[in-house]
Design brief:
Number of domains: 4
Order of helices and strands: HEEEEEEHHEEEEEEHEEEEEEEEEEE
Number of strands: 23
Radius of gyration: 50 Å
Largest sheet: 6 strands, antiparallel, barrel
Number of helices: 4
Oligomer: single chain
Length: 419
């Protein structure tokens, strides 16, 4: 009796479980909506226009950094941003200044000597003229003087005339020599002054000022090698440090203009092919208090940037996105999230991509109808990994299954499409 009671309870539980009931499947209620396909990528904010600050051309010796403004500092036009030192040029400048002083002293001495020589020649010429005048006054007495005395007086007068011509020639020669020496010394002083001015300009160029307002940043120039004081080479692309040795025309730092910004993003090859110039972009900058702005695709690079992940080689392409507004609130170097809009369709039927199944080369969607699911053949439009547009077969008010129902819950409609 007890065994019969147990068997009866078991049959009572077993038979109801075998009875058909509605499948417990995950479904989705459709509504017409807008379809938006975006490619999400991260990038770095950069200035459209960037001025590279170069080290001055220096022919006198190596230069070292004496002082540099901190990285990411905001600067105004003509503000000092870096001071370099060159020991060799300072020593040469001091030597050249002493040389100029010596030349100027020599010039003053030469002028004084020349003035003394001319004064002495003038005195001799005046003395000779006085002698000639005396001789001419005595010419009256020559008639009554003995013949020998007359001859002596004539010779004295002739001697005075010869001396006068001699002194005049000597005076002219002295003037020519003096002018030549003065001209040569003046030329040496001018040349020395030019060298001093060139060196002073060189020293002045060691104090580097900002050519425009902006924010200083490390240079991205490929030849930006900086030598440390111990002869070692600092890391490429690092910001300048006090004591670092630099060479002429080396890129010291960059000065981006903050009036116009852009975003450089890298995308994989599969996404790169779907991106076109002019496509709209939403930009989010988390570091700038979650700043949101808009932009558009400005250009795409033609050459890929190879990136290696494990053993696989992935081709990455650079895409430049222009920014519409909020340039001053987006300093260079910050990261930005970009949503690139590939396509947009208004008021259409959008279903989850995983709800579409393929049978006999046809695309199928299972639509709930009562306790069953109708197998509906559909046509699709644009799609991505998560959503697909249905162009024919659904109207947008159906409930569809996200997984394929069991065969006993599927009913194939007479019409292959659901109207």
């Amino acid at each position: 009796m007890k065994s019969f009671f147990v068997i009866s309870i078991g049959l009572f539980i077993l038979f109801p479980s075998c009875a058909p009931k509605k499948a417990n499947l995950i479904t989705c209620d459709l509504k017409r909506s807008d379809y938006t396909e975006v490619i999400r990528a991260s990038g770095t904010i950069q200035a459209v226009n960037t001025v590279n600050i170069m080290a001055p051309m220096n022919y006198y010796g190596s230069m070292t950094v004496a002082w540099v403004i901190p990285e990411s500092s905001q600067v105004a036009k003509d503000e000092t941003i870096c001071i370099l030192e060159c020991t060799a040029i300072m020593q040469m400048l001091e030597q050249e200044l002493r040389n100029v002083e010596t030349l100027q002293a020599d010039f003053k001495k030469l002028e004084a000597d020349n003035a003394l020589n001319r004064a002495m020649l003038d005195a001799r010429m005046k003395e000779n003229k006085a002698g000639m005048a005396i001789s001419q006054l005595d010419s009256v007495q020559m008639r009554y003087a003995p013949r020998i005395k007359q001859q002596l007086m004539a010779l004295e007068l002739e001697k005075s005339h010869i001396e006068e011509k001699k002194l005049q020639k000597k005076y002219q020669a002295e003037m020519t020599i003096d002018e030549t020496e003065i001209r040569q010394l003046k030329s040496r002083i001018i040349q020395a002054g030019i060298r001093v001015q060139r060196m002073q300009d060189q020293v002045k160029s060691l104090t580097i000022v900002a050519p425009n307002s902006g924010m200083v940043a490390k240079s991205d120039s490929p030849d930006n090698m900086v030598y440390s004081m111990d002869g070692g080479i600092l890391e490429m692309g690092s910001y300048l440090k006090v004591g670092s040795q630099v060479y002429p025309r080396m890129a010291l730092m960059a000065l981006p203009e903050l009036t116009e910004m852009q975003v450089s993003v890298e995308v994989q090859e599969v996404d790169y092919k779907r991106i076109s110039k002019g496509q709209k972009v939403d930009i989010i900058v988390d570091a700038a208090k979650a700043l949101r702005t808009t932009g558009s695709v400005k250009r795409k690079s033609l050459a890929p940037k190879n990136s290696y992940t494990g053993e696989s080689k992935i081709k990455m392409y650079e895409v430049i996105v222009s920014v519409d507004s909020c340039h001053s609130r987006m300093p260079p170097g910050l990261s930005a999230r970009c949503d690139i809009f590939i396509s947009q369709v208004r008021d259409t039927v959008v279903v989850p991509t995983l709800a579409i199944f393929e049978k006999d080369s046809l695309k199928i969607v299972y639509v709930a109808e009562g306790d069953k699911f109708l197998q509906i053949t559909v046509e699709t439009g644009s799609s991505n990994s998560s959503q697909t547009i249905i162009t024919k077969g659904l109207v947008g008010n159906e409930t569809i299954s996200l997984v394929e129902p069991p065969q006993n819950f599927i009913e194939k409609p007479k019409n292959s499409t659901h109207e």
